[in-house]
Amino acid sequence: MTNFGVDMAVHSSPLGFSYGNDVTGPMPEIRTLDQIRPSLRDPQCEGPEEVYAIAMDVARMQDRAELEKRMLLFGVVTYAAGTLGEEPIRSQGHVHRISLHSGWSPPELYEIWQGKAIIYMQEYVDDDPGRCFAVLAGPGDKVLVPPGWGHATISASPDEALTFGAWCDREYGFEYDAVRAHKGLAWYPLVQEKQIVWQHNTHYMPGRLQVITPRQYREFGLSDEPIYQQFIDDPARFQFISRPDKVADLWRNFHP
């Protein structure tokens, strides 16, 4: 796997991570199939019992004080190979809980490390989901989810593990209730002949799904370097993640 700025290894059996000498991180949390059934199209489906592993607050030891000062947190997630019935391996649909220190639902910046991903996002988790996007991404691609949007990360490579890193707010939290009340997000991804197709969730108003490829987000000062390396080079660069209010104008009419 390409070095994405943090000295760590990803393991598939069992799912998890190991850290280099100068890197610290928690024991991964394992999300099981039973835990995520409420957000799936078919809650009774079969699939891997351990669906994905997540480690939040991974960092080089010399960066920890700066990350805490800036209310930033780096997380890494790896998915099992396979499918969940007719659906690909995926996270639960959710919205980020409003952070007390900013008063905003934080954005999140993803970077794909291995495998292929679809970052699905929708403006609202009300009956009208607003604009809906599916961003197709591969290793090295970056995808930004704006504040307050419902979203999920979906594996587009059922035969291999998907692994990605992400910058998050240190006060991160997930809200699931509105998504679960609608039996998921507005579009269900389905695997048909190793391709991803989409089915509208009838618990939402009819709408349109835009399938797009990643862009570079130059307006946020991002470069093509790995996102952890970008923090090393300029610790202030990702302040827009923990303080989205400071760049409020950039979120208006945001296009992924």
Amino- and carboxy-terminal Cα gap:
26 Å
Q: Quickly count the helices.
A: 6
In this structure, how is the largest beta sheet organized?
6 strands, antiparallel
> Which percent range describes the beta-strand content?
35-45%
Anisotropy-based shape: globular
Which class best fits the helix and strand makeup? mainly beta
Mean pLDDT: 94
Instruction: Give start-end ranges of low-pLDDT stretches.
Output: none
Run of helices and strands: EEEEHEEHEEEEEEEEEEEHEEEHHH
Percent of residues in helices? 10-25%
Number of strands: 20
Whole-angstrom Rg: 17 Å
Q: How are the strands ordered across the major sheet?
A: 4-5-7-16-11-14
What does this molecule look like?
By secondary structure, this protein is mainly beta. Helix content is 12%, strand content 36%. It has six helices and 20 strands. The model has no long low-confidence stretch (mean pLDDT 94). It catalyses: alpha-D-glucose 6-phosphate = beta-D-fructose 6-phosphate. It comes from Pseudocitrobacter vendiensis.
What's the helix and strand layout?
Elements: E1 8-12, E2 15-19, E3 23-24, E4 29-32, H1 33-36, E5 50-56, E6 59-60, H2 64-69, E7 72-79, E8 83-84, E9 87-88, E10 95-96, E11 108-114, E12 117-122, E13 132-137, E14 142-145, E15 150-155, E16 163-169, E17 174-175, H3 177-181, E18 187-192, E19 195-200, E20 209-212, H4 227-233, H5 239-242, H6 248-251
Parallel strand pairs: 13-20
Antiparallel strand pairs: 1-2, 3-6, 4-5, 5-7, 7-16, 8-9, 10-17, 11-14, 11-16, 12-13, 12-15, 18-19
